[in-house]
Amino acid sequence: MRPRAGWSRAEGHGANRQAGIVKIFGKVRNRPSASWRQATDRAFTLIGDGRYEDAGALLTRAADMEPWISESWFNLALLHKFRHDWEQARTAGLRAVALLDRDAGAPDWWNVGIAATALQDWPLARRAWQ
After folding, report:
1. Has this prediction a pTM greater than 0.85?
2. 15-50, pLDDT tens digit by residue?
3. Does some domain include residue 111?
4. Minimal CA–CA distance to 42: which of 57, 63, 29?
C-alpha cells in the first residue's frame, strides 16, 4: 500500500483544482511538502519491512507537519490497522474523514469501519459502511 498525496484527491474526482486547496494560517497548501512526502515514503518502506514502530514515528511526524491533510491521518490509521491497534486506528481514521470533502465511500471510511467493527462500535460501524 502506497501513501496518498493530498493534491490528487480533488483532481481524481474531477473537481476543479481550487477545491483541493486548503487554507490554513493564511497559507494556501495544495500538496504535501517534500518533507512530508519523504517521511511518508520512508514509513511505508519500513512497514514493508515489518518495522511498525519506526514507521509509526515517521507517520506521526508527517501528521504533525501537515495535520490539515487527510492523508496524514489516513496513513496513520492504516498503520494502526496493520498493527490491530483498533482504538488508535479509529481515532486517526476519524481525523482523516473529518478532513474529507465528501462523507462516505472513501477508503478513509473503510478504515474507520474496520476499526469500529473490531471495537464493536456499532453506530460508527453502520455510519462508516453506508
Report:
1. no
2. 333 333 444 444 444 589 999 999 999 999 999 999
3. yes
4. 57
